[in-house]
Structure formats: C-alpha cells, structure tokens
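quick one before i forget lol
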Amino acid sequence: MKKLSVIASAMALAFSANVLAENNTPVSWDFAELGYKKVKFDGLTLDGYAVNISKLVTEQVYVFGSFARTQDDIDVGLASDINVELDQYNLGVGYRSQVNDTTDFFTAISYEIADVSAADEGMDDDGFAVDFGLRSMFGENLELAGTFGLLHLEGTDYVAGVSANYQFTENFSATLGFEYMADVKQYALSARYSF
C-alpha cells in the first residue's frame, strides 16, 4: 500500500496548478486510461485491469504512472485451486520532441514494481525501465505507436511494444496494445479520456 501512496502523491504533484503545461503536440500526452489487461508467462494466462495516467508538465517533459492487477485460479488437482495474482506498478518521467506535424519521438525512464503471489507465497521485484519510441497520427482519428526499451527487475530484458488508439471524439478514444518481453506477452484494451 505504501508503494501505491508514493505513486499517488507523485501524480498529485504533477497535476497541481503550478506545473501544468499547455499541450500543443501532435498526439495527446494528457490522458487517463482504464481497461482490460491479459498477461501470459510461464504457461499461465492472467486477466485483469489496468489504469494508466500521463501528464505533460512542460512543453517537452511528461510524467506517467500505471497500476495493473491480473489473476487466475490454477487447478492443482484434488478439487483444489491456487489463486495466482500479478500486480504491476510504474512511475516515470519522459521527454518528448516533435519530429513533424504528426509525429512525436519520446524517451522515458521509470521505476517498476512486479509483485507475484500464489497461495501464501509471494515474490516482489523492483527495478527500472528505459524506453524510447514514436507516436504518430495517421489521419485525424488514428494514432499508432511503437516502443523499444530495457526492463531491469531480476535481470535485464528487452521490451518491444505497439499500440493503436482510435479517437471517437476530441476527448474519448479506445486503445489496443501489445508488449513482448522474453517469455512474457501482455495485451491491453482500454478506454482513454484525454484532457
């Protein structure tokens, strides 16, 4: 719970009136998302939800954070199940640069936590991630993004991701995303509110 309090406090600071920035970028960096998440690893498939938030605090600098909880009940025989739960948190800061009228390049660094629990046992890893990528508008309603980076928790892994965001209105859109890392695949479908 303490980790969640630190993330919430940092995000509240980012939203305070004295650090808000004007957003004149090709893509929106000011948004909150809520959606479905699926994680596949070690032969398991966990389902749950994810919350993501991002805020531009200067013309080039943005802050972001997320929380996701996925779980599944694994049949271990003798009419018994074990609940496996994965909690993922991150809190970071990034830098964006406009490439042209439709595209932003970005790089980010974040503090990462992954907490896996099964029955009464748990494993909690924390570390950092470094990412870079492109976000680009294709027409007035479709944004495509690609990212590549390194995640260091127990070891260091390369991470690649792609996403598509379709804007229904200026403020409301839907996002579909996929991320691949070693033996881990993550899928997301979320609703986004841009502000």
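fyi Residues 6-22 have pLDDT under 50 and may be disordered.
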